[in-house]
Amino acid sequence: KSIYGMTFPLLTRSDGVKFGKSEGGVIWLDPQKTSPYQFYQYLVRVSDEDVTRMMRMLTFMELEEILQFEQEIVSKSFTPFAAQKRLAEEVTRFVHGEEGLKVALKVTEAAAPGSLAVLDATALEEIARDMPSATLKASEVIGQKYTDVAAQSGLFSSKGEAVRMVKNGGAYLNNEKVVDLAHVIEEGQVIGKKYLLFGAGKKKKILVRLQKELD
Fold first, then answer.
1. Are 123 and 174 in contact (CB under 8 A)?
2. Residue 21: its pLDDT value, please?
């Protein structure tokens, strides 16, 4: 009997390093391992050098559209992340379906700095499973410094990193920028008596749930 094999080229970045587990950027097709939101965000972060090549390899987009993005990327009129968003939408829809894409876009909108209109308890309850999260006791959060809680939540690897992010203007609480290193979290900032949304820059987010404590 004849035996046939099929091979596919490795998916590598423009610098030759492969996307994957050994590179530290693994994503899964299983939504239980990588949620639609995390999947979408991974693709939105693809570099300008890699985005159109990934369009060719991972999507069924028309070549004309891909070539248009290539021209726009090198032009002065290029809108940042326009190509990445198109790639992320196309691949997320293909892997997780239209409903998965809707969830990813909703979480992205709610997590974006300045999205106060959509940041409420109802929205956070709906998107909670699709965003990295941590559960802390209320006593570990209320009345504590932002930098301490942000580090404890896992958003930052250390308090020092949290301090640097505040100083650099990239620390957020409930989509509002934290500018004071001495900022203390108050009970009134808790959304729906349960949630706090911490952010580092525009992309990295973690949802903190407050755990009820027995008297």
1. no
2. 52
What are the DSSP calls for 35-96, one per residue?
-HHHHHHHHHT--HHHHHHHHHHH----HHHHHHHHHHHTSTTPPTTHHHHHHHHHHHHHHH
Owning domain of residue 74:
21-111
Q: Which amino acid is at 20?
A: G
Q: What mean pLDDT is reported for the chain?
A: 88
In this structure, what CATH number is given to the domain that contains residue 100? Answer: 1.10.240.10
- Contacting residues for 62 by C-beta, under 8 A, at least 6 apart: none
| 118: confidence class by pLDDT, cuts 50, 70, 90 | low
Q: What is the pTM of this model?
A: 0.67
Considering the domain architecture, whether residues 34 and 95 belong to the same structural domain is answered as: yes
Provide the 3-class DSSP secondary structure of residue 198.
Answer: strand
Q: What is the pLDDT of residues 53-67, one digit of tens each?
A: 999 999 999 999 999
